Amino acid sequence: MKGRDAEEKQTFIADARRAQIFEATIRTLDEIGYIRASMAQIAKRAGISAALISYHYRDKNDLMDYALMKLATDLSSSVLERTAAASGPREKLQAYIEASIAYQAENPARSTALIEIVFHARTADGMPYYKLQDDEDDPLENELRRILRLGQEQGEFGAFDLDAMASAIRGALDEYGFNVKLKARIDPIRFSQELVDLFSRAIGHR
Amino acid sequence: MKGRDAEEKQTFIADARRAQIFEATIRTLDEIGYIRASMAQIAKRAGISAALISYHYRDKNDLMDYALMKLATDLSSSVLERTAAASGPREKLQAYIEASIAYQAENPARSTALIEIVFHARTADGMPYYKLQDDEDDPLENELRRILRLGQEQGEFGAFDLDAMASAIRGALDEYGFNVKLKARIDPIRFSQELVDLFSRAIGHR
DNA sequence: CTAAAATCTGATTAATCGATCAGAATTTAG
DNA sequence: CTAAATTCTGATCGATTAATCAGATTTTAG
Hints:
Order of helices and strands of chain A: HHHHHHHHHH
Radius of gyration of chain A: 19 Å
CATH architecture of the largest domain in chain A: Orthogonal Bundle
Largest sheet of chain A: none
Shape of chain A: elongated
Oligomer: homodimer
Number of strands of chain A: 0
């Protein structure tokens, strides 16, 4: 009960219930947003009583933290798998861009839920997650910087500022998650192709 | 009273009070975020009673809509002024990037407040502002597209997809507002210089 | 100066929130 | 089969919210 630590053994029922509550949380965040995502709304979508959520999660923060961690981990795994399968720096960067956009296109509800949590949830002392800089171990950010650094060291990429290039790429990728009009104008495959071409020129050394 | 339409004449007191409430709203959003920004919190920072806000604004939505419009208008004016002062497409793009980053650096509280409203406020039927595509007349978006189109028509820029390039630039600029770690690593002047160089290569036709 | 209009406050209302609790229902263990 | 442990619900609690209202105060107009 109230499980949250990874090492705690869970029963089958508790595991299934927690997963069901997680899915209902994603759906609720996608449909009505963080502010209106009350325990009652999540419980309604899960088909259970609101009190049961409090039984399986310590409190609402615990639930949202778990959801954020799971969403971020799944996204990272999907992208990192595909970059690992590519060989050179340029191919890895292409895989990184394509996988990031593809994940957003294939999991719109999860992408929206992730945005909702990141921009709404705050630490106990009021610091918003989107302003948090403790993500020194954000795997996605680290992998992008690693690829860019590798490409420069191998002489495959030209000269550019790593911080600026990394944030420009991240910003462009995230933009596809926010901008509905953009999604309507360009399908994900073409958009990722355009980004690959665009940043290929920005990186230099054809 | 309850004024919101532009054509309504306001008394000096009402105008000053509305401005004072607007400033308190910005400060509240910056300090504690949208979710905790209750009427009582805003009133406390303005040094007035909470009921007085309801007297000068129809409801909380009216207040937030007004704040969003004013913040967006001020930002647009600042950027558009500096792009208008530049001559060619390449110079206009540079001015656009520099002005966007400079505004964020010079008005951190306003930038944060703008983000808070855009990612929290929703229309009556629940559509979040950040997903809204009715900004067909977003002056900043339009100006950027106009510059890029002009540069291509004049042969000053190379071949690229306008939608992808515009959103990549917008994403990179917005990233500086979100990413605290980025702000700590690069000062705004150097970051805008790097972005100018970076996108200059992406656009082509040195 | 005086009456009307505008401005402002404290109190109050109804709704919604997260969380807790006692106890019912179900599952597990021996 | 039986007792213990787990799972689950409905009721309820105190806190917080946006909004309203009567009436006090201040400003404006003549």
